[in-house]
Amino acid sequence: MNPNSGTTHDTGRSPRLLVTMGDAAGVGPECIVQAFLRGHLQGAVVVGDLGVMRRASDALPARPMLARLESPTDVDTAPPGCLAVWTPPGLAEGLDRLPLGRADARAGAAAACCIEQAVAAIRGGLADALVTAPIHKAALAAAGIGFPGHTEMLQALSVSPGAPLPPVRMMLANDELKVVLVTIHQSLRSAIDAVTFEAVLQTLRIAHRAAASWGQPAPRVAVAGLNPHAGEDGLFGDEEIRIIAPAIEAARREGIDAQGPYPPDTVFMRARDVPGHAGAFDLVVAMTHDHGLIPVKYLGVEHGVNVTLGLPFVRTSPDHGTAFDIAGQGRADPRSLEAAVRWARRAVTTP
């Protein structure tokens, strides 16, 4: 069993992936259909509403046949060439009649239901990994869902009620750069307070362990500072001296190849791995959401993958949101979702 997966899968068959449909009013369903038509979702199961997936198909020139499953395991007997859809228990009806391109509590509740049931299926051994299409945070909030995003929801769902939550981290990755975040969905003011010795050290441990799932058991980890010029020896802030550097030293004593802290405005260029410029590091740990994600997204959201590290199963997602402005127009780009599928397959098959 892969240490990052909650299930084993039979040798001789491809990993069974669950793909949640995301927000029914966004581009997620359309990206899923396009990815299937382009040959990237064979053997995968969509967790969602058949009507929503049919509406997404209607926006495209080519329309696949859809197969409704009673269980994710029924994908093995689904008619060939069909996009397999499992409608989980508790999913509301009439989702295909929701207006496209708007935040709606009903879409938020449906997205949450799909995520909950997909995680339950994985924990029950019915699938190997999870790929999530984009959800809308305002729709989640309108539905009364008490999580700001996927990461926090998946963290809570990955354990039994009342059990300690596993420490998790968000990573955004593409072929050129991998960035792991110490803090994620919170205000910048509160994020600075959340940059503690324990949080930085825990992030380094999680990143180091997770790297084995993509074939780097001994990654070179660069740590970006919090302040301009990494504090300039305390002139622009002392978090690097008080918090970040001691955490790096503690990680090194544990055998983690962590280096820094480096100025955030240059370390990503040093880590970028492209032809003619081998990256100096295998991944970068950044202190805050925008510090770390802007460099990766600037390289092209169509190539980025969001990976949740620290879960007892593999979870990936495309590096973009619901794109309400183009929903239902047949213009959504499926490449980030396809990259997320490739990453998930690789993660559950890497020894």
Account of the 3D structure:
With 351 residues, the protein is α/β, with parallel strands linked by helices. It folds into two domains: 17-166 and 312-349, Isopropylmalate Dehydrogenase; 175-295, Isopropylmalate Dehydrogenase, CATH 3.40.718. It is 34% helix and 15% strand. It has eleven helices and twelve strands. It has helices spanning 28-37, 50-58, 105-123, 137-142, 150-157, 188-194, 197-210, 239-253, 264-271, 289-298, 335-349; strands at 17-20, 45-47, 65-69, 82-86, 129-132, 169-173, 178-181, 221-224, 258-262, 283-286, 305-309, 314-318. The protein has a twelve-stranded mixed beta sheet, sandwiched between helices. Helix 7 packs across helix 8. The N and C termini lie close together (8 Å). Residues 1-12 have low confidence and may be disordered.
Considering the chains and any ligands shown, give keywords for the structure:
351 residues; alpha/beta; Isopropylmalate Dehydrogenase; 2 domains; twelve-stranded mixed beta sheet; 11 helices; 12 strands; 34% helix; disordered N terminus
